[in-house]
Design a protein that fits this description.
Layout: E1 4-7, E2 13-20, E3 27-34, E4 40-47, E5 55-61, E6 66-71, E7 76-80, E8 96-106, E9 112-122, E10 140-145, E11 156-158, E12 164-166, H1 169-178, E13 183-186, H2 194-201, E14 209-218, E15 221-226, H3 244-253, E16 257-260, E17 288-293, H4 310-318, E18 324-328, E19 348-353, H5 358-367, E20 370-373, E21 381-388, E22 391-394, E23 398-399, E24 406-414, E25 420-425, E26 441-449, E27 455-462, E28 468-472, E29 475-477
Parallel strand pairs: 10-13, 13-14, 16-17, 17-18, 23-29
Antiparallel strand pairs: 1-2, 2-9, 3-8, 4-7, 4-9, 5-6, 5-8, 10-19, 11-12, 14-15, 15-16, 19-20, 20-28, 21-22, 21-24, 24-26, 25-27, 27-28, 27-29
Length: about 475
Amino acid sequence: MLLLATAATAQDLTLTGAITRADHQTYREVPFRVPAGTRRLTVEFAYTGKDQKSVIDLGIRDPQRLRGWSGGNKQSFTISEAEATPSYLPGPLPAGTWKLVLGVPNLRAGAEARYTAKVFFEHGPSFAGFSAAPVKTGPGWYRGDLHMHTAHSDGSCLSNRGARVPCPVFKTLEAAHARGLDFIAVTDHNATSQNDALRELAPYFDDLLLIPGREITTFQGHANVLGPTGPLDFQLGSPRLPTLAALQMQVESAGGLISINHPGQPSGEACMGCGWTVKDTDFSRIQAIEAVNGGALRLPGGAESMISGIPFWEARLNAGFRIAAVGGSDNHDAGLDPAGGSGIGFPTTVVHATELSQPAVLAAIRAGHVFVDITGSRDRRLEVTAASGPRTAEMGDALAAPAGAPVRMTIHVTHAAGASLSLVGDGPKPKLGDASLGGDDETRSFEVASDGRRHWLRVDVRGPDGKLWLLGNPIYLNAPGELAR
């Protein structure tokens, strides 16, 4: 067997070789070095000779043990600290000599199979997602749920016999798919073990973007971390995590984002540490706030009940911070009937993203290109844009408008016949000439003169009974640079 290892980059490798009849029904181990600090390893394997019914099976060993064997059913695999492709074991990746294990169950006489194995090493904690390609290409409004629990924390559902049991991850994905969602984040409390199940399920649920997440659950508040899969400390106030700033630094270095959960819900026996009371929170490093939690929808007042997160979010906006409002069902039972308004997708977070991929969805949330569909509909849409001179902005964006300059805002709403528009902000708000929405595709415009100062202004949609249907994110006028995104 001929072996050749060349550096494709400073650290990635390409292993090549040839297998002949002499290797028939033998195992060959191809050694390569894994550098210290590797957090994720990916192998892409290909070989010639399949047309002659040649077969090469695949596995891998680390310096201590067999890390997996997929035989002939996979041509690529990933191993990381927190999750791995099915057939392979997650866990730390020790530096040293690893071996690609090649099994040769069949190679005909006179045949030769040449193989190429590309080995990629990732050293940073960032993670681009379980799917190498976007689930859907092209810009659009994509609908998802950012807050759900499974058997990997306190999620439960009824078994086939009707017993209440820890609810497996696939039930959550089934429910999300049935609801017509485009993306979800499974956010079990302080856990990442669910990511191994998500890695396994992603190829089957290939029309649903699966974003890794966890709910960092402390005695002073809960917050979702979306994106990173590696270890994060959650024992806030202990030597392991003395300050929130330490967690923020970890998440930022991993390319993730933080969303404060249900900040308006008081802490108590039903939910320990639910309200946000973390001292010295640097809100300039908080990307989102769960303004609407599914639990609030079951109370009088709904999204604006006594535990609503909207006042908490608006107080941050009034302080000059640009933080996106999102929603999450906080579902703990994937078997709940969605028609009851308490299942997965109630509420729905709707993002305007460049494509349906993890980087694009997280970027849209950071940018505030989001509205919250509190009714969990499949088709309601709220689009708000503003223009001043040649400059334009959408929800979440900042727009410079000097004193006296006119700002024209355009609102487009679909599938909300019978509802009405309302304007919310920290400055003077003009009266809409016609706030009612008579049809299922309505556009309204108005103009306001800028006073040259910083303001935020958003548009909400309310149903005929006055209840909030769609919660918009603001457009920021003259946002100061130090607080701008």
